Amino acid sequence: MTTAAEAPRRRPSGRYAVRALGNWMNLSTPLGLLISRVGGCRVRRGPRRLWLAEGYRPAFPFARAFTVGNVLVGRGRWSPGDTRLLAHEERHSWQWLLCLGPAYLPLYTLAMAWSWLRTGDRASANVFERDAGLAAGGYPERPLRPLFGGGPVGGRRVSPPTTPRARSRSGR
Length: 172
Prior knowledge:
Elements: H1 14-25, H2 28-38, E1 42-45, E2 51-54, E3 65-68, E4 71-74, H3 83-98, H4 104-119, H5 127-132, H6 164-169
Parallel strand pairs: 2-4
Antiparallel strand pairs: 1-2, 3-4
């Protein structure tokens, strides 16, 4: 009987190799490594051909963690207990691949703007964050606001003026 230490290491499946190669070729992983270096991170190999960058210092972007290609960038240290957040960020690495690399940035920005318009925050209606799992990424799910006919952004209606002149024009 072989122990876990004696068992041969299993190589990650082919899909992870495809993702790693694709994100390297579309230049998103090199960009992620550059961002992590500029951000003062320590970088180490992670699971499933990912890179884990730890100790990101700049204030932007405003997130506990973010992903660029196959590089998962975190403000703190990645630990084995971060399974939900790791899975969330790993899903973003697949999104980088499907968006052909740097095209992800303007698409994500548009999705973030749409989410802010519809919910008042950047994640609740963001198709990329919803696909990666809102709760796993630490985002609350906010309700949708009306787009049209609900008054100003935020869905608040403005009451009509109540001066005597305004009432006389309305026929009341």
